[in-house]
């Protein structure tokens, strides 16, 4: 675990050069062809313990999931067993632009508020919004994409995404389910000896990501909570059962911060 992040940091260094933000990060250690029906309402769930963490479980139909996987295969990525990550910056492949458009549509067709700005969201705790309007309406919504493939047992260590990326990150899950755990950043900076096991585990929030789901991280979920996928035996427990693991593919969409 953790190799994917190391690779990602390395590639970002090659693209942008080194910076102190990278060090902070290390320390802390869909296709929408036209099959989205008009007027279709996407059901969103908010993860109550974490402000800014939203889940759209049925974002992609099984057919849309297969066509997205085919599009990834057609890129020629992941042909070798050693290849497990692909990234694109700037101009994304057409299918990724369509996926980004689908995220936009899914937020717009939400059963929650879609016209609330970040500032309004924080005023008076009005957080009932899958993605604030200032993020949703930016152009482009996303200009960086990373595809990750995880074999059974492989995951990604706890991290906050690099500060090179703006607020508002979307993760689409494909192939097999997993449990992603969220831990508040303050948890890891405190002395573990003053906490009991029970308290620590209570502060780890598990979120079940089924294939076809979309998770959005903004605000506190993006900046104040680390996310991780630990697929070592004993860690992928959901509703009292250990998940049987298959290969998992994920697509993460982000927006690079504008450099002056
Ligand atoms: O694979 C995932 O679901 C998450 C990937 C991730 O967190 C990242 O690339 O920063
Ligand atoms: Fe991440």
From TrEMBL:
InterPro entries: AlkB-like, AlkB-like_sf, ALKBH7-like, Oxoglu/Fe-dep_dioxygenase_dom. One of its GO terms (cellular component) is mitochondrial matrix. It holds the Pfam family 2OG-FeII_Oxy_2. One of its GO terms (biological process) is fatty acid metabolic process. Residues 141-257 form the Fe2OG dioxygenase domain. It comes from the Eukaryota. Gene3D superfamilies: Alpha-ketoglutarate-dependent dioxygenase AlkB-like. Belongs to the alkB family. This is Alkylated DNA repair protein alkB-like protein 8. It comes from Cucumis melo var. makuwa (Oriental melon).
